[in-house]
Amino acid sequence: MDKSRSQSNAKYDPAAIEPKWQAAWDKDPALYAAVDGQKPHQAPKKYYVLVEFPYPSGDGLHVGHVRSYTAQDVVARRARMMGRNVLYPIGWDAFGLPAENYAIKHKIRPQDATATNIATFKRQIQALGISFDWSREINTTDPEYYRWTQWIFLQLLKADLAYQDEIPINWCPKERIGLANEEVVDGKHERCGTPVEKKVLKQWMLRITKYADRLIDGLKDVDYLPQVAASQINWIGKSYGATVDFQVVDSDEVIKVFTTRIDTIFSGTFVVLAPEHPLVAKLVTSEQRKAVEDYIAQAAAKSELDRQEEGDKTGVFLGVNVINPANNEPIPVWVADFVLARYGTGAIFGDAHDERDVEFATRYDIPLKTSIDPVLTRDDAKGMTDFIQKRKIVAVVENPRTNQLLTINWGPKLGGRLFIGGTVEGDESPQATAEREVAEETGYTDLELVAVGDETFHYKYYAFSKQEAHETDVRFVHFRLRSDQRQAQNLDESEQGNFKVEWVSIAQAEREIVEPLHRYGYDKFLAGKTWTGDGILTNSGQFDGLTSAEARDKITAHLAKTGAAEQTTQFKLRDWVFSRQHYWGEPIPVIHCSKCGAVPVPEDQLPVELPPVEHYEPTETGESPLANITDWVNVDCPSCHGPAKRETDTMPNWAGSPGTTSAISIRTTIKPSPRPTNSSTGCRSISTTAAWSTPRCICSTHVSGISSCMTKASCRRPSPTPCAGRTA
């Protein structure tokens, strides 16, 4: 056997081979390091391979880390072999709940848990031989790193892109923390699975809605898959509409309602506020207060998903009315949990052209009226121009004794199963026409009227039995059969022998009546559905006869003359909740002064570092544990030098993440500014050669390479007190 074949058949022994070659690679620090200072036009071409930096919040790597790092390692190594100048960095996204939860679970401090886990993660990654550029290793919990996270926050504050507001937030009662919408999945906290509640807290917000249009427009410049781009557009949820003022009767208060369907405002017969809406507490009458407060407490225990999907729409009357500005009619104000505070203005007007509104109104006997007549062209009539004008009816007849519906079956070639239809003659009413057509086509004559629909359905279709294109105005009539009394059918030539009269179950009718016009009759009378699309306005005063598209602009302009409406663009996207009521995060660099308000920490005083604490678990009140550290909280106001307090909320776990992609590209020779000696501990800090490498602390006899030197276990100072020295 030749030597090459013998070598190819040799058994791979990782315990022998990996340490040997990894030791060889470690002797050359520049082996995997990217070269700084290269100009864009110079060779070799730069190549940036980036993986998501891990949260060091577990006992070690999981297979997901290994899978993605290995795949990207193949890409990075291939690029180096092709002569590219490859930047393949690694670091630790170490702040936030995952690390804090790990520390709480194991009853250790987050600093110690993070340091231990980073050491474990690093050892495992190096054992895998992943070709990261360790010279650029960063740690988001390093004060020299998060001073820039805090600096970025101050720039956002200066630009009015960061602000405080009292808002209903997603609240996890188990972890006692506010959550961003993205952290709530199926109504539950994505990490612990606890059902999410609503809680009103003062929060720091990032004004990302200011960039909503740019987020949409920017999709033109990226090569996202179409479905991914569509998903982002839907997430942003841009919609055009109007904000309408509903004046509260006998009050100076005004309820502002954002709507995309101002064309339906003439059918608005009630207003609904979200339970979190600030006007609920102001407007509720004394007689209704107890019922409203009990209802709000029940709503707070539900997730937004439950509130949107729950079958029964519930609510409580506030005891007050507002004026519908379109027709000056008083309408009642309710509170209901199917309205969400974060959508629109947290208030809606209800009408007959929204299925949710119809369900709610029906439950509480709120009157409804229509203001939109449906418009539809069946597929077989699209493109046709020569129509015969007709007025028609569709009659739905129920037999309450058998729970069946009367139909005529034309067979598949002539339209399939339908209800009874016919043409209005002369000045006949819809009811009279329907009674005549039922008698002529089926012979049944003993009918009890249930309802005549308010709407007129404008419908174009091709009549197979008559071989004609019809443009029709259709009314819908609902009957119950009183008895089986019948007469002989009276059919015209086009009808004779072409259909069968058949009674069918409601379930069969639901399956088989698919023709759009007749299906609308089923949906209206049997399924309780309503027309929710555009159409032709009716019962809308001077705007009758306009299309919905025409009416939206004209009604908005009309109401704007009296200051009752204005054109508005809204987004489903909401500003980002940026603060967390937890310990393990970047302190928000703001000082609250009773005279000066929220004052930014001066930039030359950054970073604002986390103080050492004995107890870092979330508080029952929802405040951060930092609120109990008076020596840290109580400071002088940077502006007036009077007594003030630090902000005690911290930043979310993703606050430091965006900066990692930029920080690792900065040259490693950059050094942070000198740090002062900590006089209280006798510990002096030194700078490492990297701007954001693992910090080091020198104290008496111990040099610590961990991210914080604050525990007896990790510090061998000859003192019973842990070292609280600041790290570089």
Spans of at least 5 consecutive residues with low confidence? 667-728
Give the helix level as a range of percent.
25-40%
Q: What structural class is derived from the secondary structure elements?
A: alpha+beta
CATH superfamily of the largest domain: Nucleoside Triphosphate Pyrophosphohydrolase
Q: How is the main sheet built? A: 10 strands, mixed
Strand elements, count: 34
What is the overall pLDDT average?
85
- In terms of quaternary structure, the protein is single chain
- The first-level CATH class name of the largest domain: Alpha Beta
Q: Count up the domains.
A: 5
What value does the Rg take, in angstroms? 35 Å
Q: CATH topology of the largest domain, what is it called?
A: Nucleoside Triphosphate Pyrophosphohydrolase
Strand content: 15-25%
The CATH architecture category of the largest domain equals Alpha-Beta Complex
How would you sum up the global shape? elongated
Q: If helices are DSSP runs of H or I spanning 4 or more residues, what is the number of helices?
A: 18
End-to-end Cα distance, whole Å, is 60 Å
Give a short synopsis of this structure.
This protein is α+β, with helices and mostly antiparallel strands and 728 residues long. Helices cover 26% and strands 25% of the residues.
